[in-house]
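Minutes, structural biology subgroup

Action item carried over from last meeting: produce the structure token record for Armadillo like helical domain containing 1 (Equus caballus). EB confirmed the sequence was re-checked against the source entry. Recorded below for completeness.
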Amino acid sequence: MTSIKEQAAISRLLSFLQDWDNAGKVARSHILDSFIETNQGKTAPELEQEFSQGASLFLVRLTTWLRLTYMTGSCLDKLLRSIGIFLSAVSSNRYLIEFLEVGGVLTLLEILGLEKIKEEDKKESIKLLQVVANSGRKYKELICESYGVRSIAEFLAKSKSEETQEEVQVLLDSLVHGNPKYQNQVYKGLIALLPCASPKAQQLSLQTLRTAQSIIGATHPSIVDCVLKVLRTMHLEVQYEAIELIKDLVNYDVCPALLRGLVDLLIPSVRETSKLQPKILNGRDPLGLGARGTWAGAGGSPASWLPLCQTPRFSSSPPSCPCSCSRPRPPRPSGKQTGVGRGAVPQLQRCPRAPAQRPGTRAPRGGRSANPLPRVLARSNTSLAQEMLHLRVVHSLLSAMGNTDHSNSQRQASLTLQYFVQTFPVVEQHVRKSMGEELYQLFLSSPENLYMKIDSIQADILAANKVNVTRELHLTEACSSMSFCFSPGNEDQNEDTEGKE
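Output recorded by EB:
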């Protein structure tokens, strides 16, 4: 027979469960508030004592209500926190199994994909998935088998809260550790996140990729293009993580492809340069200018002059002044043309409210991020520097120095070229010959500020360079190998071999 105390405890439990069953949304919300406040941090034995060995009866009610109402988001935050008290309690393996048996993992993953659910509710769902994943290898495999990696990665890319994104990173990091069956799936999911539009998601994915790469060992071929595209971003924190990952990847079999891609990034593609080129220069004559530069066809409307005032996409320079002061000047009444030759581009009047520009400098233009990685890799490993020389990195660096559309890239290219000139004599000879003595001395005096001192003609000289040190490098390597073969030590060794024969 049960004692009087046990009977009283059972009666309290039945009364509590009856109150829950008969309560509406508001009453259940108050019950959850009281439960969270009273039982936060308790162990599984303490929860059983609180519910007279019937805690599982309340847990099954919570999971049932979760399955019925998670699409509406009714008290979802409190409901998930209450379930978390059971799952995170010490010695709570029984509660975890009961939660998984009713499809708890699938419910949590479905919550992540619902647009009507609040960000805070999804954050609590991520925390519960962390508890499940930290419970052991088989639970990590269960999440991955439920297409969890895809759902979690998509939520990371779409989330607007940095705190929630950091919680997702913790979950992905847990899934990649101690999960040999599905760690490659997590690795590919992280690579798929790199092209997403969220800079925070890119940063966290790159951080987790470094950990996953060291665990897996092998590389996936698609990682090269994805990481190189991330280097184009204007967010410095994302650039830093990409650089750190590439410094690790050069130790793997993708090193040649990475170096080739880095060298190619130094020269902008035709698509990039066409975006920055004013429309009046592309031969379409959108303003209706004739060979004499008349304004016939312009219509006298400010709207027809907008192509001259547009700022390139992703430009770091301030937008044009909204007033009409940036319109092109009409031709002079005398009929004399300004500029070179007929049909010259009309000059733009400077806005009186625009900031003054220092003489001898260029306003920095955006559209392409500076890339210090070639210099970082070359300084860290001479063999990598030699490999980049074979890929014509000197030619690409000189072209980048002449690309006046991107001042930051000009600066980084000058500093990188300075290292190659100081380290390899053959590079110094070719660079001096290509630049000319005056420009070369200007480069040696101040590589970091060269982009502010060169004029348009010197920039064209740099951009149109034909430097190719590959042939001299092959000759140098061949001569060094021949000198080694015919060194005195090797000759004595050959004579000894002939004498023995």
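Discussion: The chain has 28 helices and no strands.
Next step: EB to file the record with the rest of the batch.
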